[in-house]
């Protein structure tokens, strides 16, 4: 930070330093071109308003290597085992068939992951994982990332696909019930973005073991 003072208008120009560092008169800030290697860069600015003497200001600009031009894709922050039944899409983790917390966590290579239920409490190893559960990547009490779990066919979050879930989907399709975003993701068997009677029928077939929701996952691959 520096202050430009004197009778206006004051024209600031850069008189020495790397040509990748330029003075932007519109923002009154230095612009630094991408790809400038880290190091110390002496810079001199000159301020003039037509009346001599001009003011000059020299300083050293330090460019560090902790500037991250492309933040890592959040979806890449957890690593899944090969042949996993989990499917990551953005900040959501999809899966198809009833599974316990310990089986679920065994699909994830990354350490420091914990599963929380919709009530915000950590799931016990033998609890079923349902829609709305949250997988958190935590290290030393710091939350690094989190994913919302979507069990296809499970709208009430109990970790099972039942006729009750199909009924809820049907009521949502008939606009008799409001849907939460996670319910749309869980109930949208044909992945067309909304819940219809056809999705409710697919859920009913899964609940009656006539079909398997893992085929819905393939549409999301
Ligand atoms: Ca359910
Ligand atoms: Ca649908």
Report on the structure:
The protein has a five-stranded mixed beta sheet. Strands 1-4-5 form a three-stranded antiparallel beta sheet, with no helix packed on it. The chain has a two-stranded antiparallel ribbon with strand order 2-3. 19% of the residues lie in helices and 27% in strands. Strand 9 and strand 10 form a beta hairpin. Helix 2 runs antiparallel to helix 4. It is α+β, with helices and mostly antiparallel strands and 221 residues long. The protein starts with 10 loop residues before the first strand and ends with a helix. It folds into two domains: 53 residues, no CATH class; 144 residues, Type 1 dockerin domain (Orthogonal Bundle), CATH 1.10.1330. The longest helix has 11 residues. About 2% of the residues have low confidence. The structure holds calcium ion (2 copies). One calcium ion (CA) binds next to loops.
